[in-house]
């Protein structure tokens, strides 16, 4: 379960506000490269990802994944989907209210609960932003909701979530667009520090990739808030709702559902408990805040990552004891690699004097930061992705092999990490130059040791 946070990182947080000597003259240079297929790729992502979310919500039900309705669709049926009535039927005011209430709940508790303050990476303008990591306390606030349900409406709210699933998905799509439009417009405010990759001048591309690095509304750091709370807590809560719905339908919870919900809850709770670790990830240090992060965290993660649990409500499955043991072993192996690799890297960056790092070897670089060359980081350049992938597979296997759709998470995630690895490689090559080439010779594998 969750590991203890390092207090050393915290004490460093309290003394790291002084600007460094060299600050580049041009703070917001024009971006001269494209990722994700440039403007065309960006337009495709903005269009097709929400449609895919809709397809998974509307086009998968008790009749199949995909549903019989989808499998027997004629061209006229398909065109009718885009009629005004069909589109209007997707809008569910109660679901929109429920989704917004969830976001407001998170914002309210984020702004009022106390948490330890941690430093972010030093920005190009020399500043170090502080982040109040109170995510775990915000998560605990949901216990009051559980107590309210136990005393009042019982399991009805959980079943409500299952029944209003399409409307909740639509609400999250609309809200992601609203937030992305706000983020894009806000990035033109004077003084905004832009992401090095998000200032091409092409509207659709910058809108998608994210233009401003750290948009804030008062005390609320929007990117940091969106990064973990809505996605991880939404995923956790909706999975719990799906398990309760299965219990309501069957009178019991299958072992496959238990595995999926426990594994995924473990991942969500662990990431929230270790919230400070997010401060050294690419999302926070490099990427601008735009559609990619807003949609990914406000819609895609909470709506799509829990697909396995929803599938198991519609198609309950009992696993054999051997299957259960093998799946648990895969999950534990993946988690161990993922968590220990990320923790070592975080300590190495934020608290290099940590005694746990005494056996770590590294190379010095001209950029000033060191690169580890042994322990987990000697096996591959993104061994943490490998652990994450093993876990992703262990969450899909409990759904059996009747439909490929519950495996969407694994395939999507493998693609995401493969692509992300390429992006990070590009960033590191630019940052470290010759030193990165030297590092790649010492650690030749990208993700899977001995294979890739
Ligand atoms: P990493 O945590 O791997 O961070 C990459 C950065 O680490 C590099 O840019 C570099 O930054 C630094 N680094 C690279 N190699 C070394 C080294 N040898 N020694 C020291 N520092 C090094 O990548 P991500 O931010 O992409 O991922 C973080 C975690 O989040 C991963 O476990 C990933 O699986 C997970 N993740 C999960 C997602 C999900 O949807 N569930 C989505 C994306 C990621 P620098 O040198 O500049 O400090």
What does this entry look like structurally?
This protein is mainly alpha-helical and 452 residues long. The chain has 2 domains: 5-252 and 288-315, no CATH class; 319-452, no CATH class. It has 21 helices and 6 strands. It has helices at 7-13, 38-58, 68-71, 75-80, 84-90, 93-112, 135-140, 142-151, 156-163, 165-186, 203-209, 222-250, 255-273, 282-285, 291-304, 307-314, 321-350, 376-379, 383-396, 408-432, 434-442; strands at 116-122, 128-133, 216-217, 220-221, 362-363, 371-372. The strands form 3 sheets. A two-stranded antiparallel sheet has the order 1-2. Helix 13 (255-273) runs antiparallel to helix 16 (307-314), helix 19 (383-396) packs antiparallel against helix 20 (408-432) and helix 20 (408-432) packs across helix 21. Bound molecules: NADPH dihydro-nicotinamide-adenine-dinucleotide phosphate. NADPH dihydro-nicotinamide-adenine-dinucleotide phosphate (NDP) binds at residues 281-282, 338, 342, 345, 348-349, 369, 371-372, 377, 381-382, 384-385, 388, 420, 424, 427-428, 431.
Helix segment count? 21
Helix-strand pattern: HHHHHHEEHHHHHEEHHHHHHEEHHHH
Largest sheet descriptor: 2 strands, antiparallel
Morphology call: globular
Kindly state the number of beta strands.
6
Percent strand: under 5%
What is Rg?
A: 22 Å
Provide the low-confidence segments as ranges.
1-23
Q: What is the CA-CA span between the terminal residues?
A: 30 Å
Strands side by side in the biggest sheet: 1-2
Provide the structure class.
Answer: mainly alpha
Rounded mean pLDDT score: 91
Cofactors, ions and other ligands in the entry: NADPH dihydro-nicotinamide-adenine-dinucleotide phosphate
Please give the share of residues in helix.
Answer: 55-70%
Count of discrete domains? 2
Protein name: Delta(14)-sterol reductase ERG24
Enzyme class: oxidoreductase
InterPro entries: ERG24_DHCR-like (IPR001171), Sterol_reductase_CS (IPR018083)
Pfam families: ERG4_ERG24 (PF01222)
């Amino acid at each position: 379960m969750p590991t203890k946070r390092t207090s050393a990182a915290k004490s460093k947080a309290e003394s790291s506000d002084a600007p460094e000597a060299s600050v580049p003259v041009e703070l917001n240079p024009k971006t001269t490269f494209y990722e994700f297929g440039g403007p065309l790729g960006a337009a495709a992502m903005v269009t097709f990802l929400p449609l895919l979310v809709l397809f998974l919500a509307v086009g998968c039900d008790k009749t199949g994944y995909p549903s019989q309705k989808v499998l027997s669709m004629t061209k006229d049926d398909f065109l009718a989907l885009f009629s005004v009535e069909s589109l209007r039927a997707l809008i569910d005011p109660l679901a929109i209210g429920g989704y917004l209430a969830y976001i407001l709940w998170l914002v309210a508790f984020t702004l009022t609960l106390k948490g330890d303050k941690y430093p972010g990476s030093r920005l190009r303008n020399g500043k170090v932003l502080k982040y109040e990591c109170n995510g775990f306390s915000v998560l605990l606030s949901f216990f009051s909701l559980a107590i309210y349900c136990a005393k009042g409406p019982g399991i009805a709210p959980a079943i409500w979530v299952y029944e209003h699933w399409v409307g909740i998905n639509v609400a999250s799509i609309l809200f992601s667009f609203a937030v992305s439009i706000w983020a894009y417009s806000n990035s033109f405010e004077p003084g905004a520090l832009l992401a090095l990759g998000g200032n091409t001048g092409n509207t659709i591309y910058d809108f998608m990739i994210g233009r401003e690095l750290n948009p804030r509304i008062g005390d609320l750091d929007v990117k940091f808030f969106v990064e973990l709370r809505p996605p991880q807590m939404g995923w956790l809560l909706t999975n719990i709702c799906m398990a309760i719905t299965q219990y309501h339908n069957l009178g019991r919870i299958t072992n496959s559902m238990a595995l999926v919900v426990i594994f995924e809850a473990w991942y969500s709770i662990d990431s929230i408990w270790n919230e400070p670790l997010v401060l050294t990830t690419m999302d926070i240090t490099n990427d601008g805040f735009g559609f990619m992060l807003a949609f990914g965290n406000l819609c895609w993660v909470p709506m799509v990552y829990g697909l396995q649990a929803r599938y198991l409500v519609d198609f309950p499955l009992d696993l054999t004891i051997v299957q259960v043991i093998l799946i648990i072993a895969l999950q534990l192996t993946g988690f161990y690699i993922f968590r220990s690799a990320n923790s070592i890297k975080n300590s190495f960056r934020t608290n290099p004097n940590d005694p746990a790092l005494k056996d770590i070897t590294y190379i010095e670089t001209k950029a000033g930061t060191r690169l580890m060359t042994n322990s987990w980081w000697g096996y591959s350049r993104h061994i943490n992705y490998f652990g994450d992938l093993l876990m992703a597979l262990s969450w899909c296997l409990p759904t059996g092999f009747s439909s490929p759709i519950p495996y969407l998470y694994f395939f999507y995630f493998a693609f995401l990490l493969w692509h992300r690895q390429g992006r990070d490689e590009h960033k590191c090559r630019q940052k470290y130059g010759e030193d990165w080439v030297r590092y790649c010779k010492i650690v030749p594998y990208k993700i899977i040791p001995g294979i890739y």
